[in-house]
Design goal:
alpha/beta, four-stranded parallel beta sheet, disordered C terminus, binds zinc ion
Length: 255
């Protein structure tokens, strides 16, 4: 049987999934018989939810497009800031009402995102099937550091979190998914994901420590779990973390 190949090139963050020798350059991918472009992309190790635009010989195509060999294929990541408004994107434009489900290892990121105002489901007891089910049922973007989960066929929305430290993860997610304008700091309960309500001082004063009574006048209340929030030391620290999250990357290196 004669084997043919198509030439692939992956752009921007998609290179994170490739071995060094395949990054930022064209390389051949074998196409024996007709093969869907999605299948060929995944054979390179790229989870399909990370892909937002595919050009085959300059034309945008969807995942089911069949390759026969000889084509030039360019693959772009989600949310890539290119002007591609005239081309077919593989999914609706981001996330104006972004909702997430975080995998079990990302508890701290889930809590940080909630503090920044985002709707994030997280439960240590959920297995991959349950996380995928929440994603599909409620159109939530899966946040995970498990590439295998994003490679599952049924997954439509997902983001592979590259960073390790929580503060960097928050910065990465906010910047990569272009969420800056949607941050609503301290509007959501970090423990249970419920929207917080303003509450009169008198209504909660008996329930907070004496020191807090002396120092703070403004309180917020979680109708989900009953927690009371005030602008204490944790608040001040989180405020800095959220300011960092919406800052431009590499800000510290700029002059
Ligand atoms: Zn709560």
């Amino acid at each position: 049987m004669t084997r043919t190949a198509s030439l692939f090139r992956f752009y921007e963050e998609l290179n994170d999934f490739l071995p060094e020798e395949r990054r930022k350059r064209e390389f051949p991918v074998e196409i024996d018989r007709a093969r869907s472009v999605k299948d060929a992309i995944e054979s390179c190790g790229i989870p399909h939810p990370e892909v937002d635009l595919i050009l085959v010989d300059g034309q945008s195509v969807d995942f089911s497009h069949l390759l026969r060999g000889g084509e030039r294929v360019s693959v772009y990541p989600m949310f890539e800031a290119l002007d591609i408004s005239t081309l077919v994107r593989l999914r609706p434009r981001p996330l104006r009402d972004p909702r997430f489900v975080a995998d079990g290892h990302l508890r701290s990121l889930a809590r940080h995102l909630r503090m920044a105002g985002f709707d994030v489901l997280w439960d240590n007891g959920w297995d991959d099937d349950e996380i995928v089910a929440f994603s599909l049922l409620q159109k939530r973007t899966i946040l995970t550091r498990d590439k295998g989960m994003l490679r599952r066929r049924e997954v439509e929305r997902g983001y592979f979190v590259r960073s390790i430290r929580t503060e960097e993860q928050l910065h990465e997610v906010v910047r990569s998914l272009q969420l800056e304008s949607l941050v609503a700091a301290f509007s959501r309960c970090r423990e249970c994901n419920t929207i917080l309500e303003d509450v009169a001082r008198e209504a909660v004063i008996e329930r907070v420590p004496p020191k807090v009574r002396e120092l703070y006048d403004r309180f917020r209340f979680c109708p989900g779990c009953g927690r009371i929030y005030w602008e204490g030391t944790h608040y001040q620290r989180m405020k800095q973390v959220i300011e960092y999250a919406v800052s431009a990357p590499g800000r510290k290196e700029e002059d």
